[in-house]
Amino acid sequence: MTSHFTLKSLCLALFGTFALSTCALAADVQALGKSLTPFGAEKAGNADGSIPAWDGGYTRVDPGYKPGGKRSDPFAADKPLFSITAQNMAQYADKLSDGTKAMFKRHPETYRLDIYPTRRTAAAPQWVYDNTLKNAERARLVDSSAGPVPEGAYGGIPFPIPKNGDEAMWNHLLNWRGTSLSLDFRHYLMTADGSQVMTTDGKAVQEMPYYYEDGTPEGFNGDYWLFRMLNVGPALRAGEQIMGRTNLNGDQSQAHVYLTGQRRVRKLPNACCDTPTPATAGVMSFDELSVYSGRLDRFTWKLVGKQELYIPYNTNKVQTLADPSALFAKHHLNPDQVRWELHRVWVVEADLAPGKRHQLPKGRYYLDEDTWQAMLGDRWDANGQLAKTLWSLPAVLPDLPAVAQLSSGFYDLNSGAWFIQNLYAGKDSQYAAVERYKTSEFSPAAMAGRGVR
């Protein structure tokens, strides 16, 4: 078999430096599923073995798991290798994000990372791997009215060998997390004085038409994420609904809300970017959901490279808690409940694009190489001050199979408040894979039909 180095050398000899990047990409495509994982991560571990080799991920379903029910922690017996605190964080500074360091400085007595053995559990169905390989050869970015969007990608990671920051962020936006899902969760706001406020008790349906197994790029209309949520609590918000249809071209995305006081379905005029989202009672902006979501044209995106970083990972323990309050310390997540591991991440920086506006004009995002999900993110304000650090709590879901970002949230480094969305702890039904929904489930008519009158 022609080696990666030999193919690049041959391309250079035959076609010169102008075509070298294209040939190098072809060589990397050949490496998918071999020296690279099917999603484009380095299959090998790191030099000192603290990051192991990827061996196919974790796909062993707990025999006690009932589809749609509570999820278990397959690694409950693991013990922390060590802990990072404000007192020893300098020793690990090169493997900590700016936001993590800021939390140590803000809460030196209570903030802690318990570091567990790294388990590269990421997995996906074979048809997703097959589509990812096809995407590596056929997908490209094209201009749209809402910035660069993928063309020719379908059913897998669009750019497993990214050439720039836009491609890497589209890998995050189109990461594999299942196709059709039923979700029961709560959102909580923690105020600066430590008070807990449940802002949402939601029942939701979610679907990713981009991941219909029997679909094709030609038949895909660009709506890649469909979501409809009904609030069953708290009492003040019971009966409210929100529905979103997110398109590759953000100008074609739509969001509708149903408010019980108005008893009408209304289309939101600006469901993007730094606009507060009703799904979180206005606590998070649309583009902070899942660390980052939505259109890319507000920023220019730079692919900085890879680094080894401590990130939350395999955090199934969080979802097994009987009482959500067990996860909450006064000023941050309870360190006893959160598992951190060392993983390689892609670092992507965001700077406000010319002529655009945003409350937080600079960001940095850390994308797990195995899943492409943004596991951590930091955002700076117009004065250059670090204002927010965002995080996710990914769990291993062997029935899909996947490692999926279940819960996520942020710490506000100015006010001291913090927020968590999509917390499944204490729910009998959690993140359930279901049969494909009817198209009518994601329509204004469905909202109106289920509205409280």
UniProtKB/TrEMBL annotation:
UniProt entry tagged with the keyword Signal: yes
Protein origin, superkingdom: Bacteria
UniProtKB keywords: Signal
Residues in the signal sequence: 1-26
Protein name in UniProt: DUF1329 domain-containing protein
Organism: Pseudomonas cuatrocienegasensis
